[in-house]
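Hey, I'm writing a tutorial for new members on how sequence and structure tokens pair up, and I'd like a real worked example in the thread rather than a made-up one. If someone can provide the structure for the chain below, I'll link this post from the tutorial.
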Amino acid sequence: MSAPPEPTSVTVPAELRSLRERVDERLAEVLDGEHARWSDFDPLLAEPIARLRSFSVNGGKRLRPAFCHLGHVAVGGDPTDPVVLDAGTALELLHVFALVHDDVMDGSTLRRGAPTIHQHFGELHAASEWVGESRRFGEGVAVLVGDLALVLADALLTGAPPAAWDVYNELRVELVMGQVLDVASAALPTSDPATSQKISLFKSAKYTVERPLHLGAALAGRLDESAAAFTGYGLPVGEAFQLRDDVLGAFGDESTLGKPVGDDFRENKPTRLVLHAIAEANEHQLTPALEVLSRLGDPELDAAGVVAIQEVLEATGARRAVEDRIERLLGDAVDSLDAADLESTARRQLVDLAVYCAHRDR
């Protein structure tokens, strides 16, 4: 097995920083045009689009555009092709759609270091003393802002070939199905590890890595010969990305993350961390641990409750088990690239990006 580079740094790879600048410029161009168009039509439409622009341009890691770009270049595609930049920008707007709706479903109040879209408009409604319920107004506007992001994402792919649309359509369906499973599993009194794995597959592994790689290859007309290699790389990297997300959600630095630590506990998310801790506590009849874990799903869980759950995750070996799993996945991903006929610079960048996904701090 090829050993991945040691995780000595979580610095964002240079190629990701460069691509982010180009995606940010394209996002601003698209959303500034929409803002000018619709604010002229009616001033009431200015603020929703302004919030969409701010949310889209001022945050996010741009991983999906990066994987789309590298999937295209790795199989010989033209790195300067504007269709690829538009595809990456579409993926970013699709991600905004998913995040805005996800925040409504989870009742989250903070995202990317600022109030969530529904929180912002709920507060605006209350401060303005408008008619009706502020919460419903905020959530309603947020759903529509998310819908607009989705429509604009689709419009950016207008010139893509049919093979690329096939990938993009499958990506969107998989994302929605993963979200349905996520919402449903959080409502159940007990969680099935198999369902948790399916959620991770559709909401992270496929959506974040595999399908963007496939989309990039399809734009170059080379999907058939590269799909298997990109799946072999993309699924483990995507799972490692999600597992790191789980660890950060449980143990991260809130000021770095830009969102509250412990929200996964309050929402009863069936993460691998939590499922491992529950299984270990049950197996060894660790009553105190199970009592602590019984608070999962409590929306009023306070800071002390979060710390208590963190301690159980450490004591049961859940955190260590997840870290070990991340390292194995990283090795599997790097191995999958060895047998693939890929452009050498793009291959190296894919390795760098895998390491970043597995060991990032936000």
